[in-house]
């Protein structure tokens, strides 16, 4: 399969982690959001929303949205709990990531890291921190009593939330106030197949 993504994007990094942790053969097509690679006519034919990550299977099928891609790649693996309730908890955290975490932490990071914190977006940037810290507090409380978000099992939920949490400082979020999150981040780096996110050139 071909995977289209920007290695510095947390959403794309999630997919990279699953691919490497499960040893899935693939071809990585590096793209630049800022250079407009996702808005070319050739790419828009594959994904009309103009978003990455995107996987393109050998049979021509394409799939977008990072959490959907992770679910497809990890089907039948230990990254998806077999217990129905724990499985539902995994999805609960993945929805949390998309609606209560990523819109604040990832966007603040984009404004600071990708755009260089332009003055016209400072008010927006500062407002993102209130709900971003709320999300981090929820995670830290959950991780006080267990090693991973769904208990003892490392799942897709951990990968989904690791992606932007471990680089939250690049959006102005200080993780020093969240000791349980910091310990959780360290545990994830010890998982088989872990690879680091590419740093900014």
TrEMBL record:
Which interval of the chain is the signal sequence?
Answer: none
Boundaries of every GST C-terminal domain copy: 83-201
**Superkingdom of the organism of origin:** Bacteria
Write down the InterPro entries for this protein, in alphabetical order: Glutathione-S-Trfase_C-like, Glutathione-S-Trfase_C_sf, Glutathione_S-Trfase, Glutathione_S-Trfase_N, GST_C, Thioredoxin-like_sf
Q: Mind telling me which Gene3D superfamilies this protein's record contains? A: 1.20.1050.10, Glutaredoxin
Q: Which UniProt keywords apply?
A: Transferase
- Domain named GST N-terminal: which ranges? 1-81
Question: Which is an annotated GO molecular function term of this record?
Answer: transferase activity
Would the keyword Transferase turn up in this protein's UniProt record? yes
Q: What name does UniProt use for this protein?
A: Glutathione S-transferase family protein
Where does this protein come from, organism-wise?
Shewanella livingstonensis
